[in-house]
Amino acid sequence: MVKPCIANSPAGVSPTLLTVYHSPPETRGNWSSCMAYVVTENCINCKHTDCVDVCPVDCFHEGPNFLVIDPDECIDCTLCVPECPVNAIFAEDEVPADQAEFIELNAELCKSWPVLTEKRPALPDADEWDGKPGKRDLLQR
Ligand code: SF4
Ligand code: SF4
Questions:
Q1: SS3 assignment, position 92
Q2: Predicted confidence (pLDDT) per residue in 73-97, tens digit
């Protein structure tokens, strides 16, 4: 499904707009399709899940030590970005170059991991893992 871009809407997120976003493309006026948001490396072994609470379309999926965003469901509302205590969420076109593989990882893993809709306690040693380099190899599937 081609998504319209919320960034082009002057009204922000509202139930009316969400209805429009999930309607057929020919009824969406001039809104263009655009990118999704992406969870990146610093979520690994942290998984605070603050982001889940604010997502209006429930597009977070949970793995053992990481969350991903379903790019086909994300409406680019940006609400999750400031909620992440470890700054792990980026717009697709702002993902750091050395983490570009996370764009594909989000799209791949959301297909097999379950949807998470409510905040849960972070992983026990989340604070110790915040900002540590080289966490990519610790991603559990
Ligand atoms: S708030 Fe940040 S660290 Fe926590 S699950 Fe979401 S992306 Fe991961
Ligand atoms: S930008 Fe974040 S909160 Fe908004 S729809 Fe996408 S994942 Fe959900």
A1: helix
A2: 999 999 999 999 999 999 999 999 9
State the CATH number of the domain containing residue 53: 3.30.70.20
Closest C-alpha to ligand 2, atom 6? 74
pTM: 0.82
79 lines ligand 2 (CB under 6 A): yes
Distance CA 132, CA 141 (A): 20
Q: Do 51 and 65 fall within a single domain?
A: yes
pLDDT tens for 23-62 read: 554 554 555 445 799 999 999 999 999 999 999 999 999 9
- Distance from the alpha carbon of residue 105 to the mean position of ligand 2, in angstroms: 16
β 37-39/89-91 pair status: antiparallel
The reply to whether ligand 1 has any atom less than 6 angstroms from the CB of 135 is no
Nearest CA to ligand 2 atom 2: 80
Residues 71 and 13 in one domain: no
Distance CA 34, CA 44 (A): 26
**Domain carrying residue 24:** 1-34
Q: Which residue is closest in CA terms to ligand 2's atom 3?
A: 55
